[in-house]
Amino acid sequence: MSAIYIMWLRELKRYVRSRAQIVASLGQPILYLVALGFGLGPVFQRAGQGNYVQFVAPGIIAMTVLFSSIFAGVGLLWDRQFGFLKETLVAPVPRIQIMLGRTLGAATVACIQGTLVAIVCLIAGFRPVHWTDVPLALGFMILIASLFASLGTAIGSVLQTSRAFSSS
User: Fold this and answer.
1) pTM score, two decimals?
2) DSSP collapsed to 3 states, 67-106
3) Are 68 and 154 in contact (CB under 8 A)?
4) What is the pLDDT of residues 63-87, one digit of tens each?
5) Distance between CA 144 and CA 140 in Å, rounded?
6) What is the DSSP letter of 38?
7) Per-residue model confidence as pLDDT tens digits over 88-126
8) Which residues contact 27 (CB under 8 A, 6 or more apart)?
């Protein structure tokens, strides 16, 4: 159990210490929000459909969670390339615990990124229809992050190079 916690904590520390990753993880969603949300907003409003930010914000949040969690496999490939994965796998703990810790860490980081993007969307004018649906949305965010982080880890554990990851 402690191996799962250590690997989870490592993923969180790597994310928190990399300010560039935090800023970069917000860059693409903000670009989509500005370009699509505010750029196409007048067209959407003119068609009589209301506020386009209300329409596009949930998709931007889901996209952020999905892509950041599935690219956990790339982190696994980097660890393999620099030798950290080999050092980790020779530890006297089951390998499933190491992979589970990495997966849970990647899912947690993806949920944090999704929450940050949701906050940016709230600042930009997104308002949930019913505030009682927010816990349900957070639950789906956790499920999506867990599913795709495990998929990314599974793909990353099979592949040998990061170039192959982008084509799979």
Assistant:
1) 0.84
2) HHHHCHHHHHHHHHHHCHHHHHHCCCCCHHHHHHHHHHHH
3) no
4) 999 988 888 777 777 777 777 777 7
5) 6
6) I
7) 777 778 888 888 888 999 999 999 999 999 998 888 888
8) none
